[in-house]
Design brief:
Distance between the termini: 22 Å
Oligomer: single chain
Shape: globular
Protein name: Allophanate hydrolase family protein
Radius of gyration: 19 Å
Number of helices: 5
Structural class: alpha+beta
Keywords: ATP-binding, Hydrolase, Nucleotide-binding
Helix content: 10-25%
InterPro entries: CT_C_D (IPR003833), Cyclophilin-like_dom_sf (IPR029000), PxpB (IPR010016)
CATH topology of the largest domain: Cyclophilin
GO molecular function: ATP binding; hydrolase activity
Order of helices and strands: EEHEEHEEHHEEEEEEEEHE
CATH superfamily of the largest domain: Cyclophilin-like
């Protein structure tokens, strides 16, 4: 359910060549949907002088050429777009995908499933059932090329981060905290619990679409056995598949 976040949306400058439009100060479904939809509208407008745009959990960022477009002119255009509709009720843009990424839960490949399940008050079997059936949205990309944050999971998964870092989780690790999942595109440390392991290729240099996932896409992580997973390691894209969302 969307949260009421008074005072939003707001527009702020971000250095000499950036503007940030924020729809909240914390993640909720409506603010994330607004950020993704607003960014799509700005991209569709194709304003001269705007060099790139991106969306985060609750904001849309624009980088522009201040010699071609002034802060005041860009802010005026953004305010026009903001006033054109209720962005917290906006539809997500067309062209989104539903991905299925096979995942091993628990065991030696994802050793913190039991700990995460205990934090959520669930058995491991219940945790696997919930996580493998959940359909989550890519709320943002960040930290590494093509690496997604996904959510929101049911409230039972509002579990804290760890008090200390896990020194390293492998590429393809599915980690969990605060009702969100992150799918790691690189080997890295994390404070989130490692609950699943995939063989997905998130970044493919040279492809027409180098990032497998995009903000607004949805993902299901169906459970597979360790034996099935070993076969998927050799399959194109780690066995991930997708279909267009209506």
């Amino acid at each position: 359910m969307a949260l009421d976040q008074p005072g939003f949306p707001i527009i702020r400058t971000a250095g000499i060549d950036g503007m940030l439009v924020s729809f909240g100060d914390r993640l909720d479904e409506a603010a994330n949907r607004a950020a993704i939809a607003f960014r799509a509208e700005v991209e569709r407008a194709g304003w001269e002088g705007v060099q790139e745009s991106s969306s985060s959990l609750v904001s849309c960022y624009l980088r522009f050429d201040p010699l071609a477009l002034s802060h005041a002119d860009l802010e005026a255009r953004l305010r026009e777009v903001m006033a054109s509709r209720d962005w917290l009720q906006a539809d997500l843009p067309a062209g989104r995908r539903l991905h299925r990424i096979p995942t091993v839960y628990g065991g030696a490949l994802a050793p913190q499933l039991g700990e995460a399940a205990s934090e959520a008050g669930l058995s491991e079997a219940q945790a696997v059932e919930m996580l493998s059936e959940a359909q989550v949205r890519v709320t943002a990309l960040g930290f590494a090329p093509g690496q997604p944050y996904l959510g929101l999971l049911p409230e039972v998964w509002n579990i804290p981060r760890q008090s200390a870092l896990t020194p390293k989780v492998p590429k393809g690790a599915l980690v969990l905290a605060i009702r969100q999942l992150v799918l790691f595109g690189v080997t890295a440390p994390t404070g989130w619990r490692h609950v699943g392991q995939t063989a997905a290729e998130l970044f493919r240099l040279g492809d027409e679409r180098p990032f497998l996932l995009a903000p607004g896409d949805e993902v299901i992580f169906p459970a597979v056995s360790e034996a099935e997973f070993e076969a998927l390691r050799r399959a194109p894209g780690g066995g991930a598949s997708w279909e267009a969302l209506a």
